[in-house]
Amino acid sequence: MNNTTIDYADFAEYDRRQRAIERHLVTAFLGGLAVGLTGMLISASGLAWLGQVYDPYAYLALALTVGATASGFGWALVTTFLAAVSTLVSALGASALTGDDAFDVIGGSPAGLNWTLALLVGLGLLASVTRRQDGWGDVAAGAVGAALIADVVDRATPGFIDSEQSFWPGPAMVVGLASVALVLALRRSTRGRLRALAMSAVFAGLFTVCLGAFVAGWIPLAV
Q: How far apart are CA 86 and CA 157, in angstroms?
C-alpha cells in the first residue's frame, strides 16, 4: 500500500502568497484613489509650486512603489495599471464634484494624460525589473532615473514641449536630486549604482537630443 505524504507547509506558503497578492491589489487601488484625490485638492488650493512637484511626480512615485513591491512582472503590470486607473478615476470624480469635467486634470492636457498613464505603467514595469541583481536590473534602474530626469529637462528648458518658467530652479533641482537618489537607492552594490547612473545619463541625453530635434523641426512628427 502506497503512503502519500502531504506537505502542508507548501499549501500554507501558497496561501500566504495569494493573500499577499490580494493585499497588494487592494493597496494599489486605494493608493491610487488617495493620490488622485490629494492631487485634485492641491490643484484647487492654488499652490502652484506644490502642484508642479506633485503632478506628475507623486503619481510616478506611486507607480514605482507599486511596481517594485509586486510579486512578479505580470502582477506589476496589473497592479500598476490598476493604481493608474484608480488615480484617474478619483481625480475625475473630484473634478466633477467641483463642476469641471475636463480630462486634463492629470498631465495638463489630454495628450499629457495619455503620456502620463503610459509612463506610469512603464515605470511600474521597470521598477519590477530593478529587483534583479544583475545587468538588467542596472539598466532598468538607469531607465527609471532617465525618465524622471528627462521630464525635468523638458519642463525646465525654455522652448521645449512642456516648459514652465517657474519650474526652474527650485522644483527642478528638488526633483533632479531626488531622481539621482532614487537610482542609487535601487541598486545595492557600488558597481551597480555606477552603471545605473551611467545608463541614466546616456538615456536622458538621448531623449534630450531627440526632443530638441523635434522642437527644432528636424524630426517631422505630427502631434
A: 31
- In 3D space, the residue among 134, 158, 166, 222 whose CA is nearest the CA of residue 53 turns out to be 166
In whole angstroms, give the CA distance from residue 24 to residue 30.
10
Closest-CA residue to 27 (of 70, 89, 73)? 70
The residue with greater pLDDT, 144 or 54, is 144
Q: Is 17 exposed, middle or buried (0-12, 13-18, 19+ CB in 10 A)?
A: exposed
Q: Each residue of 132-150: b (16+ CB within 10 Å) or e?
A: eeeeebbbbbbbbbbbbbb
Cα–Cα distance, 12 to 64 (Å, whole number): 29
Which 8-state DSSP code applies to residue 99? T
In this structure, what C-alpha cell is assigned to residue 173? Answer: 533641482
d(CA 85, CA 178): 25
Cell of 179: 531622481
What is the tens place of the pLDDT at every residue in 132-182? 888 899 999 999 988 888 877 767 766 565 666 666 766 778 778 888 888
Long-range contacts of 146-149 (CB under 8 A, 24+ apart): 146/199, 146/200, 146/201, 146/202, 146/203, 146/204, 146/207, 147/60, 147/119, 147/122, 147/123, 147/203, 148/57, 148/60, 148/175, 148/178, 148/179, 148/182, 149/176, 149/179, 149/200, 149/204
Q: How many CB atoms lie within 10 A of CB 175?
A: 20
